[in-house]
Amino acid sequence: MWSLLNISQDLKRAMRESAQMAVNRSPSSNSEKTPPPAAEVPQSGQHNPSLIDKILDSIEEESKKQAGLNADAKGDPVVVALYRSKLTEAVEEMVKANEKAQAAHADVEKYRTKYRKLVELFRDAELSEKAKLVMDLEKTRASEAELASQLVIAQKELEQYRSKLRALGALK
After folding, report:
1. Residue 56 — very low, low, confident or very high, per pLDDT cuts 50/70/90?
2. Could you tell me if residue 87 is inside a domain?
3. 74: alpha, beta or left, given left = phi > 0 and alpha = psi -120 to 50?
4. 126 assigned to some structural domain
5. Can you give the residue range of the structural domain that contains 109?
6. What's the pTM?
7. Region labeled Disordered — which residues (predicted)?
8. DSSP of 20-65, one letter per residue?
9. Which one, 79, 87, 92, 169, has the greatest CB density within 10 A?
């Protein structure tokens, strides 16, 4: 399959050849019917007609219709060359704009992928932070329960010592 760059280069070459032929053509050779070089661009069976090929085909059909209607009025080769060069420039600009759009789309996809990865990392970090907080809370609750049981034991011992002191104080 031909890449867009190959098609663009072939189109440029064909348009330049056509412009040169139109400028170099003498009035006696105008009567000869030669196909324009754009029509001579090799069409391989390997690729589907691209947008550029479709544009060139429609232009070729329109020029044949105009040539059929105005068979006695010959087109000025300079005007034809000018229009062909303008067409070439327009197609080149279109190809460049398409390449820029594709590059921008690729950049957008790259940044979307990075953004998704960052979001996942933040979610993972947030989850791990929450898990750590839960573990710290469990440890705190366990130590609170242990301290509470030690406090109960200490209170019982205090009561025992108080009762012993009372017993000793009563003996005196």
Report:
1. confident
2. yes
3. beta
4. no
5. 4-121
6. 0.40
7. 15-50
8. HHHHH--GGGGGS----GGGGS---TTS---HHHHHHHHHHHHHHH
9. 87
